[in-house]
């Protein structure tokens, strides 16, 4: 596999690789060893020309007439995405949504482990217990520096008014990937990637389309 | 305002309108009455040419040199998105993520009310209580038909193996907007809109970018 640098694969293609990976994992679970580009594209909800184009990031691949080796392709994508080993993540903001994410098992199944959570108010009433330790914000440098696992990713679930300051702190401590649930646009240096998730905006978007 | 039909505004522009709306609401809360397109674009994280283009969906608007009237523009966007009144939503799949969403107050703040939840297993052990009633799946037709509020939107948080069947049932009962958290591509008729949210895929995407 040729060396792939960040600039070569656009963000949308990386999303599609994640979707292909899930389809391949499902095929593998069902005992299917090879898959045609048409069948894999259909399962992923993309055109087969799109799929073939996305897979050219891996160089020449697949055997004409036989399709792709399910396990091999899954491993190649997973290697590229860096999800073959469990990745440590910290979460900042243990309100309602933060708590929900701390107890969401889906992350771990997919290779991400939230190792610690942080909040300004440790005494806030919380309606459930979570497995991860919750620390005061001041402990953030200590926990990140002491972690031998090189934490690079963080989830921000603080109110919008606090999010930029929290992002600045995290970036200062070496975080380069942020999953941001606060409904604001974070201002970050070029080498930091922010993915925004806003559940209310997703519903609002649907709301428009069901009316028109 | 001229009549706007569904085809006229692309999905991405509708997302941006949601972001503008949030910025305007924040300005309004801070007592700011007018805003220039440059300032609003900066707050929303888009180019001002993009903002001006998006606002042309509302026809001629804004006063040269004075900028936009914050309250008026917010109302116009909110009318278009249909979020001026509380919209009823049902949720199917009360596992870990479903439970989290049921207790997430963010939806209601933004104009969406989850009125009922459904699950195949009512006796499943759940680690917290929620305000909404949880019904067996069989009750779905009855609850939707009896609701005088015309439920058009649903949230799917069932396992991927069940998601398509659940979507079919919902669509058969008049649902036309689905927020899908199951990591599969749903096959739906053209008049139904599906927005997909996959938190693990968001993290996986970050995982790629922090390495390359």
Mean pLDDT of chain A: 86
CATH topology (fold) name of the largest domain in chain A:
Rossmann fold
What number of structural domains do the residues of chain A give? 2
Structural class of chain A: alpha/beta
Helix segment count of chain A?
9
Distance between the termini of chain A: 47 Å
**CATH homologous superfamily of the largest domain in chain A - what is it?**
NAD(P)-binding Rossmann-like Domain
Sheet of most strands of chain A: 6 strands, parallel
Element string of chain A (H = helix, E = strand) = HEHHEHEHHEEHEHEEH
Explained architecture:
The structure is a homodimer of 212-residue chains. The model of chain A has no long low-confidence stretch (mean pLDDT 86). The termini of chain A are far apart. The radius of gyration of chain A is 20 Å and the shape is globular. The relative contact order of chain A is 0.10. In chain A, the strands form 2 sheets. A 6-stranded parallel β-sheet of chain A has the order 5-4-3-6-7-8. Chain A has a two-stranded antiparallel ribbon with strand order 1-2. The longest helix of chain A has 19 residues. Chain A is α/β, with parallel strands linked by helices. Chains A and B meet through helix 1, helix 5, helix 6, strand 7 and helix 9 of A and helix 1, helix 5, helix 6, strand 7 and helix 9 of B.
